[in-house]
Design a protein that fits this description.
With 79 residues, the protein is of the alpha+beta class. 16% of the residues lie in helices and 28% in strands. Strands 2-1-5-3-4 form a 5-stranded mixed beta sheet, with no helix packed on it. A hairpin with a 2-residue loop joins strand 1 and strand 2. The longest helix is centred in the middle third of the chain and has 7 residues. It starts with a helix and ends in a 5-residue tail after the last strand. This is Sulfur carrier protein ThiS.
Length: 79
C-alpha cells in the first residue's frame, strides 16, 4: 500500500461498551440502547458515560463520540 493509499483508508471510529470495543454507530445514549433492543423506558437500567452516570432524562440528548466508554447496567431481581 502506498503512503497516499494508506492515508485514504478509513479507520472506523470506536467506542467501548461494557468493556468491549465496537464501532461508533449511534449518536446518542438513547440510540445506542435502541440499537441493542433495550427500551429506554424500562425499569432497572442505568447508563454511565466515561464514568459518570447519565440521568435517564438526558439519554436522548447525550451524544456519544469516538473513544467514549459506555457502561449499561441492568438490575436483576433475586440474589
Amino acid at each position: 500500500m502506498t503512503e497516499s493509499t494508506a492515508a485514504r483508508v478509513a479507520v472506523p471510529e470506536t467506542i467501548t461498551v461494557n468493556g468491549s470495543a465496537e464501532p461508533l454507530a449511534a449518536e446518542t445514549i438513547a440510540a445506542l440502547l435502541a440499537a441493542r433492543n433495550i427500551e429506554s423506558g424500562a425499569r432497572g437500567i442505568a447508563v454511565a458515560l466515561n464514568g459518570r452516570v447519565v440521568p435517564r432524562t438526558a439519554w436522548d440528548r447525550t451524544t456519544i463520540a469516538a473513544g467514549d466508554a459506555v457502561e449499561i447496567v441492568r438490575a436483576r431481581p433475586g440474589g
